[in-house]
Protein backbone atom coordinates (compact mmCIF):
# COMPACT_ATOMS: atom_id res chain seq x y z
CA UNK A 1 0.00 0.00 0.00
CA UNK A 2 1.44 3.35 -1.01
CA UNK A 3 1.97 5.73 1.87
CA UNK A 4 1.38 9.42 1.36
CA UNK A 5 3.20 12.05 3.34
CA UNK A 6 1.62 15.45 3.75
CA UNK A 7 4.07 18.34 4.08
CA UNK A 8 2.46 21.55 5.20
CA UNK A 9 5.14 24.04 4.25
CA UNK A 10 3.31 27.16 5.39
CA UNK A 11 2.62 25.67 8.83
CA UNK A 12 6.22 24.52 9.21
CA UNK A 13 7.52 27.99 8.45
CA UNK A 14 5.16 29.52 11.00
CA UNK A 15 6.43 27.12 13.70
CA UNK A 16 10.07 27.73 12.77
CA UNK A 17 9.59 31.45 13.07
CA UNK A 18 8.03 31.16 16.51
CA UNK A 19 4.51 31.95 15.45
CA UNK A 20 5.43 34.97 13.31
CA UNK A 21 3.01 35.71 10.52
CA UNK A 22 4.13 34.29 7.17
CA UNK A 23 2.88 36.11 4.10
CA UNK A 24 3.39 34.50 0.71
CA UNK A 25 2.43 31.56 -1.41
CA UNK A 26 1.29 28.44 0.43
CA UNK A 27 2.09 24.97 -0.91
CA UNK A 28 0.74 21.59 0.09
CA UNK A 29 2.63 18.58 -1.30
CA UNK A 30 1.28 15.04 -1.05
CA UNK A 31 3.99 12.88 -2.64
CA UNK A 32 3.17 9.30 -3.61
CA UNK A 33 5.32 6.37 -4.64
CA UNK A 34 3.31 5.68 -7.78
CA UNK A 35 5.98 7.26 -9.95
CA UNK A 36 3.32 9.18 -11.90
CA UNK A 37 3.32 12.95 -11.86
CA UNK A 38 -0.29 13.07 -12.94
CA UNK A 39 -2.21 15.92 -14.51
CA UNK A 40 -0.89 19.42 -13.85
CA UNK A 41 -3.36 22.30 -14.29
CA UNK A 42 -3.88 25.89 -13.23
CA UNK A 43 -7.09 27.16 -11.68
CA UNK A 44 -8.44 30.66 -11.17
CA UNK A 45 -10.95 31.85 -8.61
CA UNK A 46 -12.57 35.27 -8.79
CA UNK A 47 -14.85 36.98 -6.31
CA UNK A 48 -16.37 40.44 -6.32
CA UNK A 49 -17.35 42.76 -3.50
CA UNK A 50 -18.49 46.28 -2.87
CA UNK A 51 -15.86 48.51 -1.25
CA UNK A 52 -16.52 49.43 2.37
CA UNK A 53 -13.61 51.82 3.04
CA UNK A 54 -11.70 54.49 1.14
CA UNK A 55 -8.19 55.78 1.78
CA UNK A 56 -6.59 58.99 0.59
CA UNK A 57 -3.62 61.28 1.17
CA UNK A 58 -4.55 64.95 1.53
CA UNK A 59 -1.86 67.58 1.40
CA UNK A 60 -1.48 71.32 1.78
CA UNK A 61 1.45 73.11 0.17
CA UNK A 62 2.38 76.69 0.99
CA UNK A 63 5.15 78.97 -0.27
CA UNK A 64 6.74 82.18 0.90
CA UNK A 65 10.03 83.96 0.48
CA UNK A 66 10.67 83.37 4.20
CA UNK A 67 10.28 80.04 5.97
CA UNK A 68 8.38 81.50 8.94
CA UNK A 69 5.34 82.80 7.04
CA UNK A 70 5.23 79.68 4.85
CA UNK A 71 5.22 77.47 7.94
CA UNK A 72 2.63 79.55 9.79
CA UNK A 73 0.24 79.49 6.83
CA UNK A 74 0.72 75.76 6.37
CA UNK A 75 0.14 75.00 10.06
CA UNK A 76 -3.11 76.96 10.02
CA UNK A 77 -4.41 75.25 6.87
CA UNK A 78 -3.40 71.78 8.02
CA UNK A 79 -5.28 72.29 11.28
CA UNK A 80 -8.33 73.50 9.35
CA UNK A 81 -8.24 70.41 7.11
CA UNK A 82 -8.02 68.02 10.05
CA UNK A 83 -10.88 69.77 11.83
CA UNK A 84 -12.97 69.77 8.65
CA UNK A 85 -12.67 66.03 7.94
CA UNK A 86 -13.42 65.16 11.54
CA UNK A 87 -16.52 67.32 11.47
CA UNK A 88 -17.49 65.53 8.24
CA UNK A 89 -17.55 62.23 10.13
CA UNK A 90 -14.02 60.77 9.96
CA UNK A 91 -13.01 59.18 13.27
CA UNK A 92 -9.96 60.48 15.15
CA UNK A 93 -8.17 57.13 14.81
CA UNK A 94 -8.56 57.30 11.03
CA UNK A 95 -6.77 60.65 10.67
CA UNK A 96 -2.99 60.80 10.86
CA UNK A 97 -0.10 62.90 9.59
CA UNK A 98 1.84 60.90 6.99
CA UNK A 99 4.36 63.49 5.84
CA UNK A 100 5.83 66.89 6.61
CA UNK A 101 8.57 68.69 4.65
CA UNK A 102 10.18 72.12 4.46
CA UNK A 103 12.31 72.66 1.38
CA UNK A 104 14.20 75.62 -0.03
CA UNK A 105 13.15 76.59 -3.55
CA UNK A 106 16.04 77.68 -5.76
CA UNK A 107 16.36 79.55 -9.02
CA UNK A 108 19.06 77.53 -10.76
CA UNK A 109 19.43 80.21 -13.40
CA UNK A 110 21.32 82.07 -10.68
CA UNK A 111 24.73 80.94 -9.49
CA UNK A 112 25.98 80.70 -5.93
CA UNK A 113 24.39 79.98 -2.57
CA UNK A 114 22.08 82.98 -2.76
CA UNK A 115 19.81 81.47 -5.40
CA UNK A 116 17.12 80.57 -2.82
CA UNK A 117 13.90 82.29 -3.85
CA UNK A 118 11.66 80.96 -1.08
CA UNK A 119 10.50 78.01 0.96
CA UNK A 120 7.83 75.40 0.35
CA UNK A 121 6.14 73.67 3.27
CA UNK A 122 4.09 70.51 2.74
CA UNK A 123 1.92 68.71 5.29
CA UNK A 124 0.21 65.47 4.27
CA UNK A 125 -2.63 63.80 6.16
CA UNK A 126 -3.72 60.18 5.63
CA UNK A 127 -7.43 59.44 5.93
CA UNK A 128 -9.43 56.24 6.16
CA UNK A 129 -13.09 56.81 5.41
CA UNK A 130 -15.46 54.05 6.52
CA UNK A 131 -18.71 55.56 5.24
CA UNK A 132 -18.51 55.12 1.48
CA UNK A 133 -21.59 57.25 0.90
CA UNK A 134 -19.92 60.20 2.65
CA UNK A 135 -16.54 60.02 0.87
CA UNK A 136 -17.36 62.78 -1.61
CA UNK A 137 -18.50 65.13 1.15
CA UNK A 138 -15.37 64.44 3.23
CA UNK A 139 -13.10 65.21 0.28
CA UNK A 140 -15.02 68.36 -0.51
CA UNK A 141 -14.76 69.50 3.10
CA UNK A 142 -10.98 68.99 2.98
CA UNK A 143 -10.66 70.92 -0.27
CA UNK A 144 -12.79 73.76 1.05
CA UNK A 145 -10.58 73.89 4.16
CA UNK A 146 -7.44 74.41 2.09
CA UNK A 147 -6.19 71.04 0.83
CA UNK A 148 -4.49 71.57 -2.53
CA UNK A 149 -2.96 68.13 -3.06
CA UNK A 150 -4.92 64.87 -3.26
CA UNK A 151 -3.31 61.56 -4.14
CA UNK A 152 -3.32 57.85 -3.35
CA UNK A 153 -7.10 57.56 -3.39
CA UNK A 154 -8.12 53.90 -3.14
CA UNK A 155 -11.32 51.96 -2.57
CA UNK A 156 -10.99 48.60 -0.83
CA UNK A 157 -12.48 46.33 1.83
CA UNK A 158 -11.52 46.46 5.48
CA UNK A 159 -11.21 42.68 5.88
CA UNK A 160 -10.24 40.92 2.63
CA UNK A 161 -9.51 37.51 4.24
CA UNK A 162 -13.01 36.01 3.71
CA UNK A 163 -12.85 37.05 0.05
CA UNK A 164 -9.45 35.42 -0.37
CA UNK A 165 -10.71 32.19 1.20
CA UNK A 166 -13.70 32.09 -1.12
CA UNK A 167 -11.46 32.77 -4.14
CA UNK A 168 -9.09 29.95 -3.11
CA UNK A 169 -11.96 27.47 -2.99
CA UNK A 170 -13.13 28.56 -6.44
CA UNK A 171 -9.59 28.33 -7.81
CA UNK A 172 -9.15 24.73 -6.66
CA UNK A 173 -12.61 23.82 -7.97
CA UNK A 174 -11.71 25.38 -11.31
CA UNK A 175 -8.47 23.41 -11.42
CA UNK A 176 -10.28 20.12 -10.72
CA UNK A 177 -12.83 20.85 -13.44
CA UNK A 178 -10.06 21.48 -15.97
CA UNK A 179 -8.21 18.34 -14.92
CA UNK A 180 -11.41 16.28 -15.18
CA UNK A 181 -11.91 17.39 -18.78
CA UNK A 182 -8.36 16.33 -19.60
CA UNK A 183 -8.72 13.00 -17.79
CA UNK A 184 -11.97 12.22 -19.63
CA UNK A 185 -10.36 13.06 -22.96
CA UNK A 186 -7.42 10.77 -22.16
CA UNK A 187 -9.63 7.96 -20.93
CA UNK A 188 -8.13 7.86 -17.43
CA UNK A 189 -9.53 8.22 -13.94
CA UNK A 190 -8.74 11.44 -12.11
CA UNK A 191 -7.35 10.90 -8.64
CA UNK A 192 -6.74 13.09 -5.62
CA UNK A 193 -4.68 16.27 -5.66
CA UNK A 194 -1.02 15.53 -4.91
CA UNK A 195 0.27 19.10 -5.00
CA UNK A 196 -1.37 22.50 -4.63
CA UNK A 197 0.60 25.69 -5.10
CA UNK A 198 -0.87 29.14 -4.65
CA UNK A 199 0.68 31.23 -7.38
CA UNK A 200 -0.91 34.62 -6.88
CA UNK A 201 -3.33 36.35 -4.53
CA UNK A 202 -4.87 39.66 -5.52
CA UNK A 203 -5.98 42.58 -3.41
CA UNK A 204 -9.53 43.96 -3.69
CA UNK A 205 -8.36 47.51 -4.27
CA UNK A 206 -9.30 50.07 -6.87
CA UNK A 207 -7.19 53.17 -7.40
CA UNK A 208 -9.01 56.22 -8.70
CA UNK A 209 -7.96 59.61 -9.99
CA UNK A 210 -10.30 62.56 -9.94
CA UNK A 211 -10.28 66.29 -10.44
CA UNK A 212 -9.50 67.98 -7.13
CA UNK A 213 -11.38 71.12 -8.15
CA UNK A 214 -14.17 71.97 -5.73
CA UNK A 215 -17.79 71.32 -6.69
CA UNK A 216 -21.02 72.44 -5.11
CA UNK A 217 -22.35 68.98 -4.29
CA UNK A 218 -19.18 67.32 -3.04
CA UNK A 219 -16.55 65.46 -5.04
CA UNK A 220 -18.39 62.89 -7.22
CA UNK A 221 -17.34 59.35 -6.25
CA UNK A 222 -18.57 56.13 -7.87
CA UNK A 223 -17.49 53.16 -5.69
CA UNK A 224 -18.05 50.56 -8.38
CA UNK A 225 -17.27 46.89 -7.69
CA UNK A 226 -13.98 45.31 -6.63
CA UNK A 227 -12.59 42.02 -7.89
CA UNK A 228 -10.15 39.67 -6.16
CA UNK A 229 -8.40 36.86 -8.03
CA UNK A 230 -6.48 33.84 -6.75
CA UNK A 231 -4.51 31.53 -9.03
CA UNK A 232 -3.36 28.03 -8.06
CA UNK A 233 -1.47 25.23 -9.72
CA UNK A 234 -2.62 21.72 -8.88
CA UNK A 235 -1.28 18.28 -9.73
CA UNK A 236 -3.83 15.47 -9.71
CA UNK A 237 -2.90 11.80 -9.58
CA UNK A 238 -4.08 9.40 -12.25
CA UNK A 239 -5.69 6.36 -10.67
The percent of residues in helical segments reads 25-40%
Run of helices and strands: EHEEEHEEHEHEEE
Q: What class, by secondary structure content?
A: alpha+beta
Strands side by side in the biggest sheet: 1-2-8-10-3
CATH class of the largest domain: Alpha Beta
- Major sheet characteristics: 5 strands, antiparallel
Mean pLDDT metric: 83
**Total individual domains:** 2
Shape: elongated
The helix count comes to: 4
CATH superfamily of the largest domain: Protein of unknown function (DUF541), domain 1
Number of strands: 10
Please name the CATH architecture of the largest domain.
2-Layer Sandwich
Please state the CA-atom Rg, rounded to the nearest Å: 27 Å
Instruction: Report the β-strand fraction as a percent range.
Output: 35-45%
Structure description:
The protein is an alpha+beta fold and 239 residues long. The protein has two domains: 7-49 and 159-205 and 225-238, Protein of unknown function (DUF541), domain 1 (Translation Initiation Factor IF3), CATH 3.30.110.170; 53-156, Protein of unknown function (DUF541), domain 2 (Alpha-Beta Plaits, 2-Layer Sandwich). The chain has four helices and ten strands; from the N terminus they run βαβββαββαβαβββ. It has helices at 9-16, 67-87, 135-144, 161-186; strands at residues 7-8, 27-29, 39-49, 53-64, 95-106, 116-129, 149-156, 190-201, 206-207, 226-238. The strands form two sheets. The chain has a five-stranded antiparallel sheet. Strands 5-6-4-7-9 form a five-stranded antiparallel sheet. α2 (67-87) runs antiparallel to α3 (135-144). It is elongated and about 80 Å long.
